[in-house]
Write a structure and sequence with these properties.
This protein is mainly alpha-helical. It has one domain.
Length: 109
């Protein structure tokens, strides 16, 4: 069975994509959130990024040809922007840390 033939892999990929899309849509209103809403949004983004990191690690560790091609595709796409997957995660973490600091420094939202 190939990596992408697994129902578990397919379900996790679908759920990750849906969660990401929902958070991105919600993020458009981030500036209107109260402090608690911002904290919750940041927590959900951190959780989603952790899940994505684990999901991508599964691809990297797999011997499946299609999984390896997916990793190479991501590396190529990010490489066009002068970035590696690790740099992408690092940048997202830095962004979330800045968002946290901003929320912590402004108790009123």
């Amino acid at each position: 069975m190939g990596f992408f033939d697994s129902d578990i892999v397919q379900q996790e990929a679908k759920q990750l994509f849906e969660d990401y899309q929902s958070l991105m849509q919600l993020g458009g209103s981030y500036g209107k959130f109260d402090r608690d809403g911002k904290v919750l949004y940041i927590e959900r983004m951190e959780e989603m990024m952790d899940r994505y990191r684990v999901f991508m690690k599964r691809f990297e560790l797999s011997d499946d040809f299609m999984a390896r091609m997916t990793v190479e595709q991501l590396q190529t796409q990010l490489g066009q922007f002068g970035m590696t997957p690790q740099q992408m995660f690092d940048n997202m973490n830095r962004t979330l840390e800045r968002m946290k600091q901003e929320v912590e420094s402004n108790p009123y939202g």
